[in-house]
Amino acid sequence: MLRKLTPVLLLVVVVLALAVAPVAAQDAPTVRVQLKWVTQAQFAGFYAALNEGYYEEAGLNVEILPGGPDIGPQQVVASGGAEFGIDWIGSFLAAREGGANVVHVAQIYQRSGMREVTWADSGLTTVADLQGKVVGVWGFGNEIPLKAALVKNGIDPDNADDVTIFNQPFDMNAFLNREVDAAAAMTYNELAQVLEYVGEDGTFPVYTLEDLNVIDLNAEGTALLEDLIFANGDWLAENEEAATAFLAASFKGWIFCRDNSQTCVDYVLESGSTLGAGHQAWMMNEVNKLIWPSPAGIGIVDEALWAQSVEILTNYGIIKEAPTEGAYRVDLAQAAVDSISADVDVVGEDWEAIEVAITANGE
Amino acid sequence: MAETLSDNNPSLAAVVRVDNPPPDRSTLKTVLTMLVLVILIALVWEGAKSFARAQEYKLNLFGSEIDLSIFNNTKLPHLGDIARAFGEPAQRNGPPLYQTLINYSLFTFSEALLGFGIGSILGFLLAIIFAHSSLLQRGLLPYVVASQTIPILAIAPMVVIWMRNIGQSSLAVPVIAAYLTFFPVTIYTLRGLTSVPQTSLELMHSYAATRWQILWKLRIPNALPHIFTAFKISATASVVGAVIGELPSGIQNGLGIALLNFTQFYNQSPPRLWAAIVAAALLGIIFFVSMSLLERLVVRWQVKESD
Quick check: A171 and B265 CB within 8 A? Predict the structure, then answer.
């Protein structure tokens, strides 16, 4: 009778063996950085620092953890799943107010890449023109810069008679199908998706920048700080030296990407084989525009923009009150900048953006 | 509890097993049927598209206008375009998409298989415990059921963080897959363990068989057909679990990231997302079919001996 059970027993053994096999310990101490989204040129500087050996030279074993939907970098960092995280200021400050011990240590993007785009033939060129229109925005706090801009222009975003807010998914189909009058777009991503669009019959290009009005929320004074580096506060208290070394190496990575953008694009493509090469090249160039020049040196936060972000976030209830003491510190980024400024240009005053050709479908 | 259950269910499982062994379908016939079905689906797919195109994506039906734009090339690409997408690289100078998708599918399958293994063992053990203790069954089964009503999307990010904190981040996805896998195994195995023929049970009792012997020699063999039904359900569920688990894990070389990137850049190349969907579906089907084959090997052999 027992023989009848042999297949079952075998199955159980095989399954058990499978279950136990990969449980191998990883013991080398690592500094982990949790990205805000999947591998793409938005984070190229970190990949460059890794591939160019800057982290290794600094004596660090750095692991880059790509993000994705349902990954909150603050949640990961606060829970000890990573030492550093990349996020935008809204979710960072909200997490801190919620009790997460996270500290802003460097501001990579000096300006915001968020835009509101409209079709040129619509004649909508300013935020004030959006009165009575259907306006696409993203959710999860990313709608705040546009909503603040609407309010500044006397339009109540919560009043359907003033404006119809459309909750935009993360593709540009609604805009391409003209279901919305305006759509939120990051310069480095969604804007390019419109330009890369290939028509049903294969025509390309269908749209160029001439066909679009691009409303810059930086100019409206309602932009929020975007890609920033924050650290786990408990870890930071005991590892300031390692943190400074990590920042210095990461800054060098970003400087490398400023001066060698195509190599950086290649590093990103190696790590994400479903990404379009043309789209990533565009993204790299646009991201460089958001970083360079960095007037006070890369990673040093513009205190006026910090204050602007805090004010807007407080007004819109993303945070209840101004962040507590120690929400951000500049000393580590400053030390990192000082440690490399003799060898590399940390400001990028003379840097000029290149022209990246738009490719069909971003390929 | 075990006894009362079997009282209420006279030898149903045994009847099913002995009198209705899996029909001996000829492979050729199966393949032919599948081919015909595929051709039918293709005809309906392309037919709907050309019909909608001829109507200029608008249909007037009883005075109301129906939008047929869901059949346009952006929303429902031509099957030929989807097939072509497999052969073209997803990245300039990169390998053709099918190669990338095969690599990603293998990775996702390894996670799904591990999750399937963990989930099956857990489900099997739970079923054995429940079959022998009505107290535990009454006490714990509601929680087992409740666990399946919690959306996997809600717990997946937490599982990722927990596993990372205990230094086993590579196990996060299998654990998420196991979460979807163990439930059918528990329920079906429990059913199989408890629905033994009363006469067989009486025979075992008359031989003064121990609980352990009854389990090993009667209940588990009786449960095998049920277990394999569960395995077939769990096989596909484990693939779904693995794909869902990959998203909050930030895994960059599985089907999850392919689906995510192709969704994000959907309007750049709709056929690619469909190609990734086909790959995910094929993976589930292959896993399912493997379980069916295993079932035929294990369960039919048992039926023959019973005859």
Answer: yes
Q: Which chain B residue is nearest to residue A271, measuring alpha carbons?
A: B252
Cα angle A52, A354, A46; round to 5: 25
Residue A363 near chain B (CB below 8 Å):
yes
Structure tokens at A76: 């990961």
Q: Which of A261, A113, A254 is nearest to A189 (CA)?
A: A113
**What is the rounded distance in angstroms from the CA atom of residue B88 to the CA atom of residue B128?**
50
pLDDT range class, residue B305, cuts 50, 70, 90 = very low
CB A279 within 8 A of CB B265: yes
The reply to whether A362 touches chain B by the CB within 8 Å rule is yes
Alpha helices, DSSP H, located in A154-239: 173-176, 190-195, 217-220, 233-238
Where do the CATH 3.40.190.10 domains begin and end in chain A? 31-110+224-362, 114-220
**Domains defined along chain B, listed by start:** 2-306 (1.10.3720.10)
Token output for B281: 């579906």
Interface contact A80-B217, CB threshold 8 A: no
Residues of A with Cβ-Cβ distance to B301 under 8 angstroms: 7
pLDDT digits (tens, 9 = 90+) for B56-103: 888 888 888 888 888 888 888 999 999 999 999 888 888 899 999 999
CA distance B188 to B68: 43
Residues A101, A122: contact at Cβ < 8 Å? no
Cα–Cα distance for residue pair A59/A40, rounded to 1 Å: 25
Superfamily of domain A31-110+224-362: Periplasmic binding protein-like II (3.40.190.10)
pLDDT tens, B16-28? 444 455 555 677 8
Peptide bond just before A205 cis, omega within 30 deg: yes
Complex confidence, ipTM: 0.79
Which of A279-293, B72-86, B145-159 has the highest mean predicted lDDT (pLDDT)? A279-293
Q: Between vectors from CA B287 to CA B277 and to CA B242, what angle results, nearest 5°?
A: 60
- Closest chain B residue to A7, measured at CA: B298
Does the domain made of A114-220 have the CATH classification 3.40.50.300? no
Dihedral sign of CA atoms A106, A107, A109, A113 in order: positive
B213 touching A (Cβ < 8 Å): no
Q: How many CB atoms lie within 10 A of CB A339?
A: 18
Distance spanning both ends of chain B, measured CA to CA: 30
Q: Do residues B223 and B274 lie in contact, with contact meaning Cβ atoms separated by under 8 Å?
A: no
Nearest to A287 by CA among A64, A36, A33: A36
> What is residue B207's three-state secondary structure?
coil
What are the percentages of helix, strand and coil residues in chain A, rounded to 5?
A: 45, 15, 40
Rounded distance between C-alpha atoms, residue A135 and residue B259, angstroms: 28
Span B246-273, mean pLDDT? 89
Residues whose CB falls within 8 Å of the CB of residue A40, separated by 6 or more in sequence, listed in order = A189, A268, A272, A275, A280, A283
The Cα A221–Cα A12 span in angstroms is: 63
**Cα→Cα distances B110→A153, A273, B60, Å:** 55, 19, 50
The per-residue pLDDT for A14 is 55
Residue with tokens 């998409």: B97
Cβ-based neighbours of A321, under 8 Å, separated by 6 or more: A97, A314
Q: Rounded mean pLDDT of chain A?
A: 90
Chain B residues whose beta carbon lies within 8 Å of the beta carbon of residue A170? 264
Considering only CB atoms, which chain B residues are within 8 Å of A363? 91-92
Beta-sheet pairing, A62-65 with A31-34: parallel
